[in-house]
Amino acid sequence: MFLFSHHYSLEEIDFLKGATDYHCHILPGVDDGIHTLKESLEVLAFYEEVGVQEVWLTPHIMEDFPNETSMLRERYTELCAAYNGPIQLHLAAENMMDALFDQRFFDQDLLVMGEGTHLLVETSYFNPPMRLYDILDDVRSRGLFPILAHPERYVYMTNKDYERLKKMGVLFQLNIMSLAGIYGPEAFKKSHRFLMEEWYDFYGSDIHRLAPFRKALAEKALTAKEVKALQELKEKATLVGE
Fold first, then answer.
1. Which residues 6+ apart lie within 8 Å of 165 measured at CB?
2. Residue 101, helix vs strand vs coil
3. Alpha-helical regions (H) of 128-198
4. Is pLDDT of 242 > 60?
5. Residue 118 φ then ψ, to 5°
6. Parallel, antiparallel, or unpaired for β 171-175 and 202-204?
7. Which of 18, 57, 152, 225 is the right S-S partner for 27, CB 3.0 to 4.6 Å?
């Protein structure tokens, strides 16, 4: 896809060495991500090879996958018992801002990141929830920092939407596979632009299967300036309480 020698891959720049994955679907058998414990351990073994140090497991909680937080904690305990490697594992969730989220938020039944400081949220790729900005205000009013997963992938969002979200204090999380064009040309363009404009606060693999992720790591998609910006993002991405 990228044929010029002045472009670099995530693999070449050792981006994952010492990295934290702030968004992934490695917890087995709970959503559309990794299916089995064996596959989860294979992903973690690969993560060890490339130097990942810390992983936030963020399974979907949404109407399509109405995972109970108690069940997710049980699965997390099982994975931690089976994995004996050096990577630090943490449990959170990727929360779709739908009707189920409203109920879980009201009940204060949420899996948060950091020391109870950050909440990873998402919307439909094609349409916003009716109360998008009110929901995000509610999250902030509870003392949480909302992190919007993969903002580059929302086809309905315009520059005005992104600017309004940033002014509200919403944090942006880059899907690093977007940089390699895995999610199509629009997400590719947005991810590179947001990276250079320093709009991202966190990054994550959003890994659902190992093979596509490995392919993305090998894609020569980054200029030297983008490599520098990505390394700066890696250095600044820190959850309050870490």
1. 136, 148, 151, 172
2. helix
3. 132-141, 159-168, 185-196
4. no
5. -125, 145
6. parallel
7. 57
Strand 118-122 and strand 88-91: pairing? Answer: unpaired
Q: Distance between CA 71 and CA 52 in Å, rounded?
A: 26
Strands 171-175 and 54-57: unpaired
As to burial, measured by CB atoms within 10 angstroms (0-12 exposed, 13-18 middle, 19+ buried), residue 143 is: exposed
Q: How far apart are CA 156 and CA 154, in angstroms?
A: 6
Residue given tokens 């309050």 in the structure block = 240
Query: pLDDT (tens digit, 9 = 90+) per residue, 129-179?
Result: 999 999 999 999 999 999 999 999 999 999 999 999 999 999 999 999 999
| Strand arrangement of the beta sheet that strand 94-96 belongs to | 60-61, 94-96, 118-122, 145-149, 171-175, 202-204
- What's the pTM? 0.96
Residue 112 has a pLDDT of: 98
Domain boundaries, the chain: 20-234
Which CATH fold topology does 20-234 show? TIM Barrel (3.20.20)
Residue 84 tokens, joined = 């004996």
Positive or negative torsion for Cα 76, 80, 85, 87? positive
C-alpha pair distances (Å), 50 with each of 9, 13, 20, 105? 13, 11, 12, 36
Alpha-carbon dihedral sign for residues 155, 167, 94, 114: positive
